[in-house]
Amino acid sequence: KHHVCEQCNKKFTSEKYLSMHMSLHRASTIPSFQNPPDGLWQCKLCDKLFAQNSNYKNHMRTHSNERPYVCSTCSIGFKERYHLKKHILFKHTDEAKEECRVCGKRFKDSTAVRAHERTHSTERPYSCMRCSKSFKTSESTTATAATIDRPFRCDTCRVSFKLKVHLKKHCLYRHSTDYPCECTFCGKKFKDSSAVKLHERIHSDERPFVCACGKGF
């Protein structure tokens, strides 16, 4: 089932992606800022102060629907460049540049590497607020209270999930270097079937996303 943008007729595979795209049409202008004493920028909506103009502007987007950083592959917009880079890394590339210094296992980002490297040590820097038990990852501190509502638990980092499919996605992207899905045309490998489907369109004449001008992409 396709979810279609009512304003430009572009099609998306999920309601979530459609919502993220629609925010581009609803983007509101960031309020003009005042420069208070001592060279600080202050948010007019929540009074938070910032030392740099760029940080102020990034913060103001949290109060608006503006998503100026758009993925060139799937047209989804993001409020910060960092989130766009993460999206491209995990959804549209097969790169795993970060390497464990102990066993050489490779991961998508440094956060995953650091969490993995603790499995090689006795370090447990995160404590549960309820029982004071210590854990190797911050996610595990919340897992102790979620075993009933979230019965599917990751064997590697002990994070729990409500649905088995979410656990499988977590393990695939956070703890695995496997790329089980393969393009039927060129053999390039991807993490999941949705990424393969997007990629395979470059081998065909299919143009499922239609612009208001009538041109397909």
From TrEMBL:
Pfam families from the UniProt entry: zf-C2H2 (PF00096)
UniProt cross-references to InterPro entries, sorted A to Z: Znf_C2H2_sf, Znf_C2H2_type
Keywords, ordered alphabetically: Metal-binding, Nucleus, Repeat, Transcription, Transcription regulation, Zinc, Zinc-finger
GO cellular component labels: nucleus
Highest taxon in the source lineage: Eukaryota
Domain C2H2-type, chain residue ranges per copy: 3-30, 41-68, 69-97, 98-125, 152-180, 179-208
This protein's record includes keyword Iron: no
Principal location class: nucleus
Keyword DNA repair in annotation: no
GO molecular function, one term: zinc ion binding
Localization (cell): Nucleus
Name of the featured protein: C2H2-type domain-containing protein
Gene name for this UniProt entry: 20196206
